[in-house]
Design goal:
Radius of gyration: 46 Å
Bound molecules: ligand C2E, calcium ion
Strand order of the largest sheet: 17-18-20-21-22-23-24-25
CATH architecture of the largest domain: Alpha-Beta Barrel
Oligomer: single chain
Mean pLDDT: 87
Distance between the termini: 88 Å
Helix content: 40-55%
Number of helices: 23
Number of strands: 25
Strand content: 15-25%
Largest sheet: 8 strands, mixed, barrel
Shape: elongated
């Protein structure tokens, strides 16, 4: 809220508003404490029917200090002035009474005029000051005029003190109320707090309404956001539903006029920093005084700042909990939604919807297009669910739903994605994979974070084995995920404890049987002596990133061993090393490769890197740029597991590789199928057209070997030739098989 809209009240039109000080009693109460009855009667006669500041005096007569003490202890009447005799039961009974009034009864406002018949009994100046005595007069001094003047001064000073006291208490209340209010978050809670605090500040019944109008809404109809008293049930309803025409009119006028007004219906106007304006209306069951008005003004200034804070926290909340692109809860926001929904609906489902291959859409088209895809997908999902189900976006291309859905609702959502999407006038086909958790089951997690994790485990599982389908979470999945995490922990330990090592599988020229090199294969033997298959831990290492340091180590070790073999005279030995995509994409990879070759002294041409075929799913230009740098070091490149994955044969002339490594799957079926029509043959011939070498992996028997030779495959490896072995065994194997 800008500073210039701090509340200002316009001309007070209410006739009920009382501009004079609010003092509930219409008289000034004056105590006469004197043991001489004559003083009582003469005082009353002297000041009969005289008004002070518009009010008459009400005399109360007491005849001893003791009597006065008892009266003051019990009475709740506000006493303005005490005319007090000094000498009564004792010589200083009056002075003692003053001490009691000030120090024990803590009556600080009442003004005291001391009177004494004997001048010798006049108190010291010091005493007068200490006891806050207003005046000291000897009885002869108190003529009618003297008495009038003394009373007038005392009453004025009492009334001023009383006013100060009321203001002080009012301000104290404002500070207190503001502190209480500052603890309330959200526009509704804050507004309700404000109404209640204003009522309590003014001491009127809790009866009021707050409404908000957003100017960008069409129509810009005000809504009731807080209410106390009769209309408390109208929260979140349009102002038009308010059955009290006068209040409705007052609020409308307040919002239209942009000004606050005081009266029987007090309306207060606040402008928020965005396009919202707030109007509060309080009905007072008593007249409001000048002081009320001043306090209200001060309090409203504080409320204005409060509304500003509410607006700011709302903005912060929005940033923290709302997805800026789609305006639905983000991951943090969705976690809160889960908690809320869990309490509301039982049973319910948590569904993660992941758009398949979204990163490819983003990469091949552009990010704006990707945004449009997300928007359209969001709308489609939203149109399929009822209002009890909440949609959020928990990561880039992953939506989440939670609510009282059924399994068939989930099926419908997956099905709905099979309909083409119309984006910027183009048709786009999408598919989604889903992970679902049923909430409230005996095995189901409780915390939002855990539930999302479980749904994610199911999603990951579906991504891997049931793309485009739904996978329901069950406890075995969590167990498997936990096992994977434990395995990864073990791998980290094994790597730092140097428990990883390499085996080498010889590769030969098929036609001659001549050894040409070996493939380095990673091995992990756990402390219990059990080998853990690379197919199990390599994907984990890739997902977690630990493949980067491990891969570097593999490359260096394999190069060292290759160099050793070179030194033993096997000049053409070629070491093949598997390199993950993550490694290739590592910006330091080329530099690392260069320095490993340099350190180990292995010439580049004695090294080959094996990349899996799925590399073509990545940006082909980027991959080729990298491969060019690899080639510049003399290192050759083989496309591993060829034929299994994504690459269409037409990509072969686009990607800069030297060798195709025909996947094991095609070798094992070589015997059953007619060799002539077999895919292995097709691959070999195509490779020849593109001037690529071919190598077969997984040769397990002589028939396969002969079939490969007959189709013209250049090289091969497999158990029939040799199993993977450690470096010492390899050295011996080479010596034994120079004539293979
Ligand atoms: P790959 O690159 O396809 O490696 C060949 C796999 O086939 C090896 O399995 C090897 O032991 C096995 N093999 C060799 N001859 C035969 C045969 O005649 N019959 C059968 N059935 N299998 C045979 P391994 O060692 O279990 O490796 C599995 C996969 O792990 C490798 O597949 C490779 O993708 C990955 N891998 C192994 N070492 C590394 C490494 O250092 N770095 C990276 N990034 N991946 C590696
Ligand atoms: Ca390989
Ligand atoms: Ca392979």
């Amino acid at each position: 809220m800008s500073k210039d809209v701090l509340v200002s009240f316009i001309g007070d039109t209410s006739s009920q508003c009382n501009d004079t000080l609010d003092i509930p009693n219409e008289v000034w109460n004056v105590l006469i404490v004197d043991d001489d009855p004559l003083v009582h009667s003469s005082t009353r006669i002297a000041i009969q029917n005289v008004q002070f500041e518009g009010r008459l005096l009400n005399f109360i007569s007491l005849y001893s200090a003791k009597e006065a003490e008892q009266f003051l202890e019990k009475s709740e009447l506000p006493i303005a002035v005490i005319l007090l005799d000094v000498v009564m039961e004792s010589d200083d009974a009056g002075l003692k009474l003053v001490s009691t009034i000030r120090d024990i009864f803590q009556l600080k406002l009442v003004r005291i005029i001391l009177r004494t018949g004997q001048p010798g009994y006049a108190p010291e100046i010091e005493t007068i000051k200490n006891l806050d005595i207003n005046d000291y007069k000897s009885k002869p001094e108190l003529t009618r005029n003297g008495l009038y003047t003394a009373l007038a001064v005392a009453i004025r000073s009492y009334s001023q003190l009383q006013q100060l006291e009321q203001t002080r208490r009012g301000l104290e209340k404002i500070v207190e109320a503001s502190c209480d209010l500052s603890r309330l978050h959200g526009l509704n809670a804050y507004s309700e707090g404000a109404v209640l605090q204003i009522c309590s500040l003014l001491g009127v019944a809790e009866e009021g309404l707050v409404c908000v109008r957003r100017h960008s809404d069409n129509p810009a109809e005000p809504f009731i956001i807080a209410a106390a008293g009769t209309y408390a049930n109208l929260i979140n309803q349009p102002l038009n539903n308010l059955p009290c025409p006068s209040m409705r009119k007052a609020l409308d006028e307040c919002l239209d006029g942009g000004e606050s007004r005081i009266g029987e219906l007090t309306t207060l106007y606040f402008k928020l920093s965005d396009d919202r304006t707030v109007a509060a209306c309080i009905r007072s069951d008593r007249e409001l005084s000048m002081l009320d008005k001043q306090l209200l003004q001060a309090f409203c200034a504080s409320i204005s700042i409060g509304f500003d804070n509410v607006y700011m926290t709302e903005r912060l909340e929005e940033e923290a909990y709302v997805d800026p692109l789609l305006g639905i809860p983000n991951r943090n926001g969705f976690e809160r939604v889960i908690v809320r929904q869990q309490q509301r609906f039982r049973p319910s489902l948590l569904l993660l919807i992941d758009i398949d291959d979204f990163s490819a859409i983003n990469a091949t088209l552009d990010q704006h297009y990707g945004d449009d895809v997300l928007r359209t997908a969001c709308q489609r999902v939203q149109s399929l669910v009822n209002e009890s189900t909440v949609l959020g976006r928990v990561s880039g291309d992953c939506f989440a739903l939670i609510g009282p859905m059924t399994e068939s609702d989930c099926d419908d959502i997956v099905q709905a994605f099979h309909e083409p999407f119309e984006i910027n006038g183009n048709k786009l086909l999408l598919s989604v994979t889903c992970g679902v958790v049923k909430l409230g089951g005996s095995h189901s997690a409780v915390s939002a974070n855990e539930l999302l994790k479980d749904a994610n485990i199911a999603l990951k599982q579906a991504k891997e084995f049931n793309r485009g389908k739904i996978r329901y979470f069950d406890a075995s999945l969590r167990k498997a995920a936990e096992n994977r995490i434990a395995l990864l922990g073990g791998l980290r330990e094994a790597f730092s404890a140097r428990q990883l090592f390499l085996h080498y599988q010889p590769q030969i020229e098929l036609a001659t049987g001549r050894l040409i090199g070996a493939e380095a294969l990673l091995r992990w033997c756990n402390p219990a002596g059990k080998f853990i298959p690379p197919d199990l831990f390599i994907p984990l290492a890739e997902q977690s990133g630990i493949i980067l340091p491990i891969g570097t180590w593999v490359l260096r070790t394999a190069c060292l061993h290759a160099k050793k073999l070179l030194n033993q005279g096997h000049k053409d030995f070629r070491m093949a090393v598997n390199v993950s995509h993550a490694q290739l994409r590592d910006p330091e990879f080329i530099e690392q490769l260069r320095s490993i070759l340099f350190e180990t002294g292995l010439p580049g041409r004695n090294l080959e890197i094996e990349l899996t075929e799925s590399i073509v799913a990545e940006d082909i230009n980027l991959v080729n740029q990298l491969l060019k740098q690899v080639h510049a070091l003399g290192v050759t490149v083989a496309l591993d597991d060829f034929g299994t994955g994504y690459s269409s044969l037409s990509l072969l002339n686009k990607i800069a590789v030297d060798r195709l490594k025909i996947d094991r799957a095609f070798i094992s079926t070589l015997e059953q199928d007619a060799v002539d029509s077999h895919l292995a043959k097709v691959i070999v011939h195509l490779a020849k057209d593109f001037h690529l070498m071919t190598i077969a992996e997984g040769i397990e028997n002589d028939r396969q070997l002969q079939a490969l030779i007959s189709v013209g495959c250049d090289e091969g490896q497999g158990y029939f030739i040799a199993r993977p072995m450690d470096i010492d065994a390899l050295e011996r194997w080479i010596l034994d098989h120079t004539d293979f």
